[in-house]
Amino acid sequence: MPSDFDCTVLSRLPLAEAVLSLWQWICHDDHLADLYDRHRGQTYEKKISFSLLTQLIRDALLEHQGSGHQSFSHGREDGILDAALSSVYDKLARLPIPLSEAFLAEGADRLRQVLPESTPGDNPVPASLREFEVVVVDGKVVKGVPKRLKPARGLKGGLLGGKGLAALHLSSGLVLALATDPDGEANDAKLVPALLPQVRERLPGVRLWVGDRQFCDLKQGAAFTAEGDHFLVRYHPKVHFHADPERPSVVGQDARGRAYREEWGWLGAEGSKGRRYVRRVKLSRPDEEDIILVTDLVDAERYPAADLLELYLARWGVERVFQQITEVFGLSRLIGTTPEGTLFQLSFCLLLYGMIQVVRGYVAKGQERKAETISSELLFVDVKKQLVALHELVEASQITVLLRPVSTAEEMRGRLGRLLGGQWSECWRKAPKRKSKPPAAKKANRDHTSVFRILHPPTAKSKKKNA
């Protein structure tokens, strides 16, 4: 039984207790065992269960600055790992990719059940577009793979791990799903057919898909508008726009006083399969590249152009997610070196990011302030400090006993509210935004290749097929 000292230590570390309770809610052993059984493919468990592997990766990212070696060594020292350290790396290297996708998607499902109620001021979606579930899609390639694999040693340039296409639910701030490819040089658009069904399965209602210019083509437009959904993407001139001569263009100004012009017409040439009637909005930016958007939301009165432009600006939230999982949540220090290992860490970091968003939401609710005024990065710094302190002062076996499991989402919301509602530090306050000049354009660096292409070089047959 835990001692009075153990109980006192835990009571003084509410951030650590909240995060570990949340982890227990989304990644309890029975769920992970079932998840593994459904997606394990030809892999198997022996000394290292999937539950144990996730715990070791969690500790590496939360307590050991992304060092797998330190986490695995501590696991052996604590008696929870009864296998060689190399066996953990081998297990990670062979994880089935569908397992990584399901790990994130089903973990995000559990997180959504315990999200705190948000205020309208926390929703970045303009009021006229809140009838939709807005989902931002964007790709993330895992970079900087260590050259530990024998075929990669001595190669010049950087190595890429796997590629993931993420779906960010804009109103909740959570990444709901990830479609992946082991080849880091795969095109994002290739992954759209695998991503959309995952999101539609778990996000009811009419969805509005928001994406960059690489998703502007007739094929993606058809995919986005299936099941009554809609799209808003940046225009790409590879698909011709043919203005409607019977409908004059309209000019206006966005919320920042910049001029825009909107016009109606057809995307795609006459007779093209998938050709559709759209609205195009062009925002003039004197010191930067113009922004041109296309959407199938053609009703300008119901969906004002200024709101569409504001929503597209909010799309950059997914870029901030990718930046934070790389710089803050440990994706810059890769534990695995195979495409499978890098994709699991990508999924893992996205799930950790979601956990911190939930914690931030409860802190904000308790302080009656907007969540966006709290820095996720600075909050995460204190989360890690408290986790390290807890594991230094209390034995790992006793921590499990101290964290009484909850059986319902309502119970978990109550626990998180009690733990986090009164927590605040001025150190968590986000610094005000500073207006900065746009960065100078950099020459693209193509001096890299993916680990997948090193391990699976093209054969003469595949070269002929791609020619």
Walk me through this protein's architecture.
With 467 residues, the protein is of the alpha+beta class. It has a domain at 4-212 and 315-420. Helix content is 43%, strand content 16%. It contains 17 helices and eleven strands. The protein has helices spanning 4-11, 14-26, 29-39, 50-63, 68-78, 85-93, 97-113, 192-202, 218-224, 305-314, 317-327, 339-367, 376-393, 396-402, 409-420, 451-455, 460-466, and strands at 133-143, 158-169, 174-181, 207-211, 230-234, 241-243, 250-253, 259-267, 276-283, 291-295, 448-450. β8 (259-267) and β9 form a beta hairpin. The longest helix is centred in the last third of the chain and has 29 residues, at 339-367.
Q: What helical percentage do the residues reach? A: 40-55%
Radius of gyration from the alpha-carbon trace, in angstroms: 24 Å
Overall 3D form: globular
How far apart, in Å, are the first and last alpha carbons? 67 Å
How many extended strands?
11
- Overall average pLDDT: 91
Task: Sketch the topology as an H/E string, one letter per element.
Answer: HHHHHHHEEEHEHEEEEEEHHHHHHEHH
* DSSP helical segment count: 17
> What is the beta-strand fraction?
15-25%
Low-confidence runs:
none
Summarize this entry quickly.
By secondary structure, the chain is an alpha+beta fold. It is built from 17 helices and eleven strands.
Map the helices and strands.
Blueprint: H1 4-11, H2 14-26, H3 29-39, H4 50-63, H5 68-78, H6 85-93, H7 97-113, E1 133-143, E2 158-169, E3 174-181, H8 192-202, E4 207-211, H9 218-224, E5 230-234, E6 241-243, E7 250-253, E8 259-267, E9 276-283, E10 291-295, H10 305-314, H11 317-327, H12 339-367, H13 376-393, H14 396-402, H15 409-420, E11 448-450, H16 451-455, H17 460-466
